[in-house]
């Protein structure tokens, strides 16, 4: 992974790491809340430091870079809990089992252990004190450092204090306040803060083309970018995105009106769904007019709506809006809600038939 693959809000930290004249430091603490990209930055730093091209960035092509991606680099050592290794499927999870307990012992436990135990630290110490096998240095990753139990932390202290000159520690911590002060004080600290919302929004819109609720996702995630993405990856949890997804799938024949109506009505009131359909349709019309006048702002968040609009003409869109108004007037009457919605969605999908 190269610097260009950094999250936009961690690029500065990546650059600062390599431009810093203070390369005497052998231990770094990547500190900040979960969801800010610390683990990914640690991966990138490790790759860049191990790369044989030595150009302050991983070339992606040398022997070291290729071995690293395949999970076989002899100079990357990762200590993390069994729990994290099972739950998070990333590069570090590939390297962690080397220092975990034997699988047979692990299987006897009901739940995977959430700590980094002293045996894991003892396991890595000989590797700290031998020469690098392939690259110019060795990297020891602690992910996350607060998972070290007290004995493990104490036994790590000595190595942290006087590491060999070609050995670097990257400690990741989501809760740096829980670390032993003696551990913290031996590290150069790289603090991660919540990026500004405009930057997060731009990034999230790129990750989620077609979503119209990205700003709200960011607010729900209290500004933490990866948490906002996780919210989006989980259940589609706003009425607006549910309705939009249904419109999108219907247009592309990925669902049928009966199924879509049943799903929508399970979670939202008919009148709310119809209102959202009206809002989206009006937005499509507005974007279409803007495009005709040459004043369209093709913001990512609007792209999916613009694409739908390109497949429809104005007459269809206005007729659909009229139908929606009529359905709204009938809502709450004798007609069954699901049937009423189905008929609206049938009209929507029919507009996209060739
Ligand atoms: Zn390389």
Layout: helices, strands, pairs:
Elements: H1 11-19, E1 27-31, H2 38-50, H3 63-69, E2 76-79, H4 82-87, H5 91-95, H6 103-108, H7 118-128, E3 138-143, H8 150-161, E4 167-173, H9 181-185, E5 188-191, H10 197-207, H11 214-220, H12 225-233, H13 239-251, H14 257-267, H15 270-292, H16 303-310, H17 314-330, H18 337-350
Parallel strand pairs: 1-4, 1-5, 2-3, 3-4
Helix pairs in contact: 7-8, 11-12, 13-14, 13-15, 14-18, 15-16, 15-17, 17-18
Bound molecules: zinc ion (ZN).
Your description of this structure?
There is one protein chain. The chain is an alpha/beta fold. Helices cover 53% and strands 7% of the residues. The protein has 18 helices and five strands. It has helices spanning 11-19, 38-50, 63-69, 82-87, 91-95, 103-108, 118-128, 150-161, 181-185, 197-207, 214-220, 225-233, 239-251, 257-267, 270-292, 303-310, 314-330, 337-350; strands at 27-31, 76-79, 138-143, 167-173, 188-191. Strands 2-3-4-1-5 form a five-stranded parallel β-sheet, with helices on both faces. Helix 8 links the parallel strand 3 and strand 4 (167-173). Helix 13 (239-251) runs antiparallel to helix 14 (257-267) and helix 15 runs antiparallel to helix 17 (314-330). It is elongated and about 75 Å long. The model has no long low-confidence stretch (mean pLDDT 88). The structure holds zinc ion. Zinc ion (ZN) is lined by residues 51-53, 58-59, 61-62, 64-65. The site of zinc ion has 9 residues, from helix 3.
């Amino acid at each position: 992974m190269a610097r260009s693959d950094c999250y936009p809000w961690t690029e500065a930290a990546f650059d600062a790491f390599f431009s810093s004249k203070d390369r005497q430091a052998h231990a770094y603490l990547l500190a900040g809340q979960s969801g800010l990209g610390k683990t990914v930055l640690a991966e990138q730093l490790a790759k860049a430091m191990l790369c044989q091209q030595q150009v302050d960035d991983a070339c992606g092509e040398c022997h070291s870079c290729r071995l690293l991606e395949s999970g076989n680099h002899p100079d990357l050592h990762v200590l993390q809990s069994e729990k994290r290794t099972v739950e998070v499927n990333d590069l570090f999870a590939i390297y962690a089992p080397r220092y975990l307990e034997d699988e047979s012992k692990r299987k006897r436990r009901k739940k995977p252990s959430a700590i980094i135990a002293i045996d894991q630290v003892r396991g890595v110490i000989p590797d700290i004190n031998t020469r690098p096998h392939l690259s110019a240095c060795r990297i020891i990753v602690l992910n996350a450092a607060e998972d070290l139990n007290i004995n493990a932390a104490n036994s790590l202290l000595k190595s942290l204090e006087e590491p060999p000159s070609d050995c670097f520690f990257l400690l990741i911590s989501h809760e740096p306040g829980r670390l032993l002060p003696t551990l913290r004080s031996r590290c150069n600290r790289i603090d991660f803060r919540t990026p500004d919302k405009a930057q997060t929004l731009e990034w999230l819109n790129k990750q989620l083309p077609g979503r119209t609720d990205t700003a709200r996702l960011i607010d729900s995630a209290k500004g933490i970018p990866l948490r906002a993405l996780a919210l989006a990856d989980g259940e589609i949890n706003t009425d607006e995105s549910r309705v939009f997804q249904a419109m999108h799938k219907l247009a592309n024949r990925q669902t049928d009106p009966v199924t879509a109506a049943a799903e929508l009505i399970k979670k939202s009131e008919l009148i709310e769904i119809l209102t959202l359909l009206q809002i989206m349709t009006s937005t499509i019309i507005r974007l279409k007019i803007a495009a005709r006048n040459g004043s369209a702002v093709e913001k990512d968040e609007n792209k999916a709506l613009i694409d739908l609009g390109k497949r429809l003409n104005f007459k269809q869109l206005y007729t659909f809006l009229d139908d929606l108004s009529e359905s709204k007037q009938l809502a709450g009457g004798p007609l069954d809600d699901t049937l009423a919605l189905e008929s609206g969605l049938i009209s929507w999908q029919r507009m996209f038939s060739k």
